[in-house]
Design a protein that fits this description.
four-stranded antiparallel sheet; 12 strands; five-stranded parallel sheet; DUF4062 domain-containing protein; Immunoglobulin-like
């Protein structure tokens, strides 16, 4: 059905080591559109330089192209960091840092997240990690950053952030997903070693809400369905702070990242969320 809507351009700003995070944010924004766009009369349009910047002569630098084509036109900026700060520009310690400062100076909502996942120091550039840590400390002193523990956690934080921005812009109806007031189903993969030293993989679904049950919940795992051993695929209720764990066996040819779809009901109203999940 056709509906009138405001379109908000959401720029994703990040160094080159955050490809999974970028895809997780894009999936989170599309997931928000699926569940909220019509009721909020608002559509979120992801913008990322690799996909949306057009090569242009006559501009002083590649960063200048990104600034003029994407950053200056963006309504919201989401910045992501994993283990790299990125290449310096003429005016900042990195392109992403320049985009953060430029957007903040323009009064745009800017959300900055750093990964709190463990890093393998044998595989990373220690000097680059040090540059990133210095920048992180600088932003932390200004209260301008958040952290994420995995891709699913990042997706939820992005959805919460854009809900706040939409309210700030005076758009949309109140969200049906608020921390502490509504069901918060999350999905993650956990790897462990059993008492025999054998590696085992589990897929865990949990309701992070402290008060609300996710009723008639269904889980669509797409290409992972045949690898996750569930006794039943019938809808079920997931009470607050409860979880379910299923054993999984991932084949070599299976995708390492999927977007799982969770649907449930609250007060007889259907809800859904798309969550990026990685098997690594």
């Amino acid at each position: 059905m056709v509906f009138a809507a405001h379109v908000l351009k959401v720029m994703i700003s990040s160094p080159g080591d955050t490809a999974d995070e970028v895809q997780a944010v894009i999936a989170a924004l599309h997931g928000w559109n699926s569940s909220r766009a019509e009721s909020a009369e608002t559509v979120l349009l992801p913008r990322f330089w690799k996909a949306d910047a057009v090569p242009q002569l006559g501009t002083s630098s590649g960063q200048g192209v990104i600034n003029s084509q994407l950053l200056d036109e963006a309504d919201i900026v989401i910045a992501l960091f994993d283990a790299r700060l990125g290449q310096e520009t003429d005016s900042a310690v990195s392109g992403t840092a320049e985009e953060i400062e430029r957007a903040s100076a323009a009064g745009k909502p800017v959300h900055v997240w750093f990964s709190d996942e463990p890093v393998d120091r044998r595989k990373i550039d220690i000097t680059e990690l040090g540059r990133l840590q210095s920048f992180r400390e600088e932003l932390q002193s200004r209260g301008l950053l958040g952290v994420y523990t995995d891709l699913s956690d990042l997706a939820y934080r992005v959805r919460d952030a854009v809900e706040s921005d939409i309210s700030r812009f005076g758009l949309g109806a109140p969200s049906v997903v608020r921390k502490g007031e509504h069901a918060l189903p999350r999905l993650r993969v956990e790897r462990d070693v059993d008492y025999r030293g054998k590696s085992q993989v589990s897929v865990i679904l949990e309701n992070k809400s402290e008060t609300v049950t996710a009723k008639d919940l269904s889980l669509d795992l797409g290409p992972w369905e045949h690898a996750v051993y569930r006794e039943s695929h019938d809808p079920f209720d997931l009470p607050p702070l409860q979880s379910l764990r299923w054993t999984a066996g991932f084949d070599m040819g299976m995708p390492t990242q999927i977007t799982a779809t969770i649907t449930w009901t609250e007060d007889s109203a259907p809800q859904s969320v798309d969550l990026p999940v990685t098997s690594r």
